[in-house]
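Here is one chain, start to finish.
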Amino acid sequence: LVENSVFDKVFFCNSGAEANEAALKLAKKYGKTKSETKTQVIAMKKSFHGRTHGALALTMQDKYQKSFMPLVPNIQAAEYNNIESVKALINKDTCAVILEVIQGEGGVIPAEKAFVQEVAALCKENEALLMIDEVQTGIGRTGTLFAFEQYGVEPDVVSMAKGLGSGVPIG
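Its structure:
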């Protein structure tokens, strides 16, 4: 993975949900190195990041969340493919933005290239991590090793799982 990507470290775990839990923890830890108040995470509406408690907080769908409230605090929901929605939420206290470049829950909904690039720029501007969830799209499923490669961005964190194990649970 390191030899074939822009990344220099890999953390192995058991599942996509656990990979997204690790990404959330990494974002919070990163934020605390900048400021005690840099703890906000922005996720996209209609996303799916897993069913564990932290990953569920990133999964912006009431049908999954409502029975488990309250969830991890300080996670905001932006509209997918709506940069104004992200701009309205991101600020100096945002430690990360997480998104799928292709949402797979309830259909196949690709992100607009300009949207992903503008989110990446906003993350840099606000010293927030850009986290891409590639659990469903990674490991060649979209024609490139990672789907984000087709968007001209370089995320800080990528979570992946399903494709890594060819059917064996890994994240």
